[in-house]
Write a structure and sequence with these properties.
By secondary structure, this protein is of the alpha/beta class. The chain is built from nine helices and twelve strands. The strands form three sheets. A six-stranded mixed β-sheet has the order 6-7-8-3-9-10, sandwiched between helices. It has a four-stranded antiparallel β-sheet with strand order 2-1-4-5, covered by helices on one side. Strand 11 and strand 12 form a beta hairpin. The longest helix is centred in the middle third of the chain and has 14 residues. The N and C termini lie far apart (41 Å). The protein binds adenosine-5'-triphosphate. Adenosine-5'-triphosphate binds next to helix 1. This is Histidinol-phosphatase. Belongs to the ABC transporter superfamily. Keywords: ATP-binding, Nucleotide-binding, Transport. InterPro entries: AAA+_ATPase (IPR003593), ABC_transporter-like_ATP-bd (IPR003439), ABC_transporter-like_CS (IPR017871), P-loop_NTPase (IPR027417).
């Protein structure tokens, strides 16, 4: 499903996001990168329709997001935020079952097919073995994977992930990125690891609330731009295994 933003802006006293326009094609994996505080999370929340009184418009599959009901939005968009609020009393399986909520009604209560979707989502993130564990007892990385399973169980057309690899060990980081890039849905994710960002179909670079570059990763993440925006030196290296470009970073300046 196509996600299109036009002229998005939001201020909280000072401007936080300014005049961002962007179209993400069906099935595309689009990465947002940028320094701390550059507006990535705010932009993701705006694209998910979670910030009231924003400037500009978001269209989902050609329809204005503002005209869809909360239930219609939840049937189309799943959002995994950096910090998830979840009742400590729930089990892992309960949390993932919440992902089915937008599809349930008095006429369509939770059914065995919903149960199978929940099982699949738990397996996809390697959490099936901990399904009966209490949320409160999980590690940070396990919680992250459960939240991603909840989003998968929602069977969205658009998956929005805010720094989904935070807390994850390297195996789970790579398997999560492989999982989401193979999903037949539109994926928008904020990432801090620029080498991981190189695996996205396209990247948008945020700086002080504006999207200052957008395009294929190799075109966007040039050493010159990395120096200007992230204030680091970057040496491009070629991985002989698959010829992808990775960067080795070094400080350009003393101090913070
Ligand atoms: N409700 C708010 N009121 C005031 N300022 C806000 C509010 N929400 C966000 N900000 C500010 O907006 C800026 C952008 O925040 P945002 O969380 O979108 O950045 P980010 O790029 O996701 O950062 P990070 O990489 O650190 O997660 C920050 O300076 C933040 O302090």
């Amino acid at each position: 499903m196509r996600l299109a933003a036009r002229g998005l802006g939001w201020s909280a006293g000072a401007p936080i996001v300014e005049d961002v326009s962007l179209t993400i094609e069906p099935g595309e994996t689009f990465g947002l990168v940028g320094p701390n505080g550059s507006g990535k999370s705010t932009l993701l929340r705006m694209m998910a329709g979670l910030i009231p009184r924003t400037r500009g418009t978001v269209h989902l599959g050609g329809r204005p997001l503002s005209r869809l009901s909360r239930r219609e939005v939840a049937q189309r968009i799943a959002f995994v935020e950096q910090i998830a609020d979840t009742s400590e009393a729930l089990s892992v399986r309960d949390v993932v079952e919440l992902g089915r909520t937008p599809w349930l009604s008095a006429l369509a209560p939770f059914s065995p097919s919903d149960g199978m979707i929940v099982d699949e989502a738990l397996q996809a993130v390697g959490m099936a073995g901990l399904a009966s564990r209490r949320w409160a007892t999980l590690s940070g990385g396990e919680r992250q994977r459960v939240q991603i399973a909840r989003a998968l169980a929602q069977r969205p057309r658009v998956l929005i992930l805010d720094e989904p690899t935070n807390h994850l060990d390297i195996h789970h980081q790579l398997s999560l990125l492989r999982l989401v890039s193979r999903l037949p849905v539109t994926v928008v994710l904020a990432l801090h690891d620029l080498n991981q960002a190189m695996g996205c179909d396209r990247l948008g670079v945020m700086q002080e609330g504006r999207m200052v570059a957008c395009g294929r990763p190799v075109e966007v993440l040039t050493p010159e731009r990395l120096a200007a925006i992230f204030r680091v030196g970057a040496t491009p290296l070629c991985d002989p295994v698959d010829q992808t470009t990775i960067f080795r970073y070094h400080c350009l300046e003393e101090g913070a």
